[in-house]
Specification:
Blueprint (H helix, E strand, L loop, with lengths): L2 E5 L4 E7 L4 E6 L4 E6 L3 H9 L3 H9 L4 E4 L1
Antiparallel strand pairs: 1-2, 2-3, 3-4, 4-5
């Protein structure tokens, strides 16, 4: 399994990405909310990591664009 992750700031506390399955897991708040997004391309993950505001990028380019569920 090939994974990449980061520790976040603001309301997104962290995220990880599996390059083989294109699944992104996002930790929100104090870790009480965890979401998994499927089919997220690697370039979207890379742009998300580089974004100055992870929350704004997530809301604009990821939320509602990919199949996701709270886990």
């Amino acid at each position: 399994m090939s994974e990449d992750s980061f520790a976040g700031m603001s309301w997104i506390r962290g995220a990880k990405y599996n390059t083989e399955t294109e699944r992104m897991v996002i930790y929100i708040g104090e870790g009480s909310e965890v979401y998994e997004c499927e089919g997220v391309p690697k370039d979207v993950w890379s742009e998300f990591k580089r974004a100055e505001s992870k929350g704004k990028y997530f809301n604009k380019y990821i939320r509602g664009q990919y199949n996701s569920s709270q886990i």
